[in-house]
């Protein structure tokens, strides 16, 4: 079995599909008793080897946990408990039908909730934290087969939410919810880089969720997607006055790809769950023939980092479908790429050229080094373990936590052995 992109072939044929949390616990206890190893598997959208194992893969795609709302004292819903393998498309539809919302989504709603939060997945927005920042509780089957609930104010919570699948198998996640809201999305094309960089903070703050697409080559940005909330956003930045053109037809972020898979644009208002992702759940997201990488740096270094990447644009652009620049607000999860710092996320959607990508990533990482880049756990990076330990200040604490909750290393795999510091 392979991941969604086809660049990872999992090292096992032992793939289980439990339908209940009790079945998950039975599988884990049996693997523990047999001295084996296992990993949870979400919707297989990671590009790194993070989900791989030579032991047992526990896929959560058939787990049935009906979504349930928890109400506050005033009778208003405050949270929703969902199955770990539920996709954001499923959760979004359930919440929208109940007049509720999550604050944000990633670029695609196809990913599982647990898989997304365990890797620190994010969308965009200067005031929007990663998807993990909506988590209030995780129900985790530990290596012994015991089910534990880790809640927001528990001491282990900050270590657990972005847990890289190293702490056990999450069977259910409780997410903070808010009242339903509408979003209208529009796209500008060809904003000159000079104008983009001299107005960077205003542009990124000029909508609820803003993405800048580029290849780091040439004098103009490719596209700027603005997802605006009329109920909270201030006046928008006049990008036309800065030299851009507003798209008059719906466009795909990847040059040459048909636009039928993207969420509605052209300022047509609609429910949050049909606008905040770029791609519609019923279509293939992105390109499909691709590999992805991403690095998060402190937001205050955005202009310097983009300028440095433009200087090596001729090395990057030939391998790219496109790059995307987004904002992520600081959060408190130890291994979140936006832990304790408001961030610029610099994403690369590469053509499927694995060797050439592995050759250019060290140059990108070296170029970003002055800005302390943190690679996305679910995407391809070449950073050394020492570099990761510098970038993620709580990585050593996290590794110690993993040893405490999984002393026999049941949820370890070669990826985790490489990235986690040893005693
Ligand atoms: C087209 C495309 C677009 C993307 N867009 C974005 C984006 O906008 N923003 C972004 O940040 N990322 C993005 N990603 C990356 C993606 O969000 C992450 O790789 C995410 O982890 C995928 O979730 P998944 O369910 O597929 O996880 P998987 O790849 O299946 O697993 C990832 C990790 O989570 C663990 N895991 C999964 N389920 C559980 C569980 N129940 N309990 C414990 N651990 C678990 C696995 O063991 C593994 O370690 C994109 C990926 C693709 C393919």
How many domain units? Answer: 3
Main beta sheet strand tally, sense and closure: 9 strands, antiparallel
The top-level CATH class of the largest domain is Alpha Beta
Radius of gyration: 21 Å
In terms of structural class, how would the helical and strand content be classed? alpha+beta
Number of strands: 19
Helix content: 10-25%
The CATH topology annotation of the largest domain reads as Alpha-Beta Plaits
CATH architecture of the largest domain: 2-Layer Sandwich
Give the DSSP E fraction (strand runs of 2 or more residues): 15-25%
Low-confidence stretches: none
Count of individual helical segments: 12
């Amino acid at each position: 079995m392979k991941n969604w992109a086809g660049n990872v072939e999992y090292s096992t044929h032992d793939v289980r599909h439990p339908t209940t949390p009790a079945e998950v616990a039975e599988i884990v206890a049996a693997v523990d008793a047999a001295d084996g190893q296992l990993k949870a598997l979400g919707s297989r959208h990671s590009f790194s080897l993070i989900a791989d194992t030579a032991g047992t893969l526990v896929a959560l795609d058939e787990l049935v946990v009906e979504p349930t709302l928890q109400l506050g004292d005033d009778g208003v819903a405050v949270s929703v408990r969902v199955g770990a393998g539920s996709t954001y498309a499923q959760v979004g539809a359930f919440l929208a039908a109940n007049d509720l919302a999550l604050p944000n989504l990633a670029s695609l709603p196809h990913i599982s909730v647990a898989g997304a939060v365990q890797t620190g997945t994010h969308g965009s927005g200067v005031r929007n934290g990663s998807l993990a920042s909506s988590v209030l509780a995780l129900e985790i089957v530990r290596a012994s087969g015991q089910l534990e609930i880790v809640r927001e104010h528990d001491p282990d919570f900050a270590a657990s939410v972005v847990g890289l699948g190293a702490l056990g198998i999450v069977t259910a996640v409780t997410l903070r919810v808010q009242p339903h809201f509408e979003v209208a999305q529009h796209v500008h094309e060809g904003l000159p880089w000079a104008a983009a960089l001299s107005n960077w903070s205003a542009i990124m703050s000029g909508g609820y969720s803003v993405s800048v697409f580029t290849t780091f080559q040439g004098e103009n940005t490719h596209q700027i997607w603005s997802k605006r909330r009329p109920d909270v956003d201030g006046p928008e930045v006049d990008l036309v006055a800065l030299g851009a053109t507003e798209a008059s037809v719906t466009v795909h972020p990847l040059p040459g790809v048909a636009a039928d898979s993207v969420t509605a644009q052209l300022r047509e208002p609609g429910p949050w769950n049909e606008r905040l992702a770029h791609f519609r759940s019923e279509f293939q997201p992105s390109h499909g023939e691709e590999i992805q990488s991403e690095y998060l740096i402190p937001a205050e270094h955005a202009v310097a980092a983009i300028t440095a990447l433009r200087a090596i644009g001729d090395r990057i652009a030939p391998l790219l479908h496109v790059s995307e620049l987004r904002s992520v607000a600081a959060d408190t999860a130890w291994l979140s790429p936006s832990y304790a710092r408001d961030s610029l996320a610099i994403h690369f959607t590469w053509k499927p050229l694995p060797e050439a990508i592995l050759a250019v990533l060290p140059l990108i990482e070296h170029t970003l080094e002055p800005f302390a880049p943190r690679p996305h756990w679910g995407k391809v990076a070449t950073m050394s373990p020492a570099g990761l330990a510098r970038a993620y200040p709580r990585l050593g604490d996290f590794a110690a936590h993993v040893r405490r909750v999984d002393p026999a290393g049941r949820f370890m795999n070669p990826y985790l052995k490489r990235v986690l510091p040893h005693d």
